[in-house]
Hints:
- It is a single chain.
- By secondary structure, this protein is α/β, with parallel strands linked by helices.
- It has two domains: 2-109 and 303-326, 2-Layer Sandwich (ornithine cyclodeaminase, domain 1); 116-301, NAD(P)-binding Rossmann-like Domain (Rossmann fold), CATH 3.40.50.
- 35% of the residues lie in helices and 25% in strands.
- It contains ten helices and 16 strands.
- The protein has helices spanning 8-14, 17-32, 105-124, 139-151, 164-178, 235-240, 248-254, 256-263, 276-280, 302-319; strands at residues 2-6, 36-37, 42-45, 52-60, 65-73, 85-93, 99-104, 131-135, 156-160, 182-184, 197-200, 219-222, 242-245, 272-275, 294-297, 323-326.
- Strand 3 (42-45) and strand 4 (52-60) form a beta hairpin.
- Helix 1 (8-14) runs parallel beside helix 3 (105-124) and helix 3 packs parallel to helix 4 (139-151).
- The radius of gyration is 19 Å and the shape is globular.
- The model has no long low-confidence stretch (mean pLDDT 94).
Amino acid sequence: MDLLTISAEEVTELLPMKDCISVMGEALINLARRLSSAPLREVIWTSEKSGLLASMPAMDNGLGRFGVKVLSVFPGNHKLGIDSHQGIVVLFDAKQGQPLAIVNAGEITGIRTAAVSAIATRELAREDASDLVIIGCGFQAIKHLEAMCLVRPITRVRAWDLYPSAAESFAEKALSQFGLDVEVQTGEKALVEGADIICTLTPSNEPVLFGQDLTPGVHINAVGSCSPVARELDSEAVIKSRLFVDLIESTLAEAGDILIPIAEGKITKDHIVGEVGQICNGEITGRRSANDITMFEALGLAVEDLAASSYIYEKAITTVRGTMIKL
């Protein structure tokens, strides 16, 4: 059996952010049409609760492919200069069932997560949104900056992190890669007054963004929380927001940002307007007015990894990239 392996460096080369945004748009539309499916992820925690191993299968009938991402998540890794997300995507053909490729999952996760946030921002943020706040300056920060710049005319960037050195490092990368001067914030919390777009990208278990601080018209990408008992936004922020998600079933099983306010009796599941793919598909309306506060709760889905891996595989075959191994 011949199997193509694709490294992190090759993923970056074969999946530029602009292309990934287009690929993710198609994946979300397929999901909205239920041409694809993504069962809830299976998670095993370490005994110390310091990290987890997740298994995320998916099928996309539109692509004719299925696969699984196996990923470890160790939030404390960023203190050691190690990626918090590490793993592989195994891609299969759905006609005869043969495995096609093993692809580095860490880099795919980084690129496709920001690309999906870009789609939500494209559909929900005001057209003139230019003031961006990044909360959490780990691996996702520079990816999200790139993605936001591709869908909105970003002219001002503010950044906050629990570790000021991480924010400083992000600012250096932003200036070097995009020519943007980032205003590094210090203090106990991020200052978001006047922001048009806010991306929360932290592993925090407690809120880092508060409803009382939100300016009318802002769009929020809530990306960091992926546990029923962890959240980045307080309940007031969620209550104030017109709320959209990537997949309703996953949100109601895994998203602490939403499940905690539901448990408090402050919202019901009907607070979710719908899925971003449904906006792309024209089924539902996103932003209704310039003063709407819109929110996208992102959990990250295996159908996104599947679509990205399939695109990378096709490009690798065409450009003769990757390394073929025999099993």
